[in-house]
Amino acid sequence: MPGLHISRVRALYKRVLQLHRVLPPDLKALGDQYVKDEFRRHKSVGSDEAQRFLQEWEVYATVLSQQANENRQNSTGKACFGTFLPEEKLNDFRDEQIGQLQELMQEATKPNRQFSISESTKPKF
User: Fold this and answer.
1) Which ranges does the record mark as transmembrane (predicted)?
2) Are 123 and 82 in contact (CB under 8 A)?
3) 122 lies in some domain
4) Quick one: CA dihedral 53, 84, 21, 15, positive or negative?
5) Residues 36-94: tens digit of each pLDDT
6) Structural domain range at position 22
7) Residue 111: helix, strand or coil by DSSP?
8) How far is C-alpha 12 from the geometric centre of its chain's CA atoms?
9) Domain-located, residue 114
10) How far apart are the first and last CA of the chain?
11) What is the largest CA-CA distance in the chain?
């Protein structure tokens, strides 16, 4: 990611992988692989795209951190991760991103997972 300080990118990458430790094992493995692939895929993007990429991952890390804290305080023992993806945001995605999102959803909702994904009218990721 040209123009960005490599330590910022590396710190965010490590933070996300560290946050994934709170996820159920299957979801952690899926998330870790996705993070590694996405950071690798964005190594040589332009400055504007790199900034957007990092901003989105920083938001993800913040949300996941908040959810992990909420789950620790939740006495029911049922962990909840993810957030709704508004249709307006989906409209901004390129076809390639929609395809990746579909693949991720299919992988995350395969049977025999150790976590459950709630069915909803809005995509939840």
Assistant:
1) none
2) no
3) no
4) positive
5) 999 999 999 998 999 999 999 999 999 999 999 988 887 776 778 888 888 888 888 88
6) 2-83
7) coil
8) 12
9) no
10) 25
11) 46
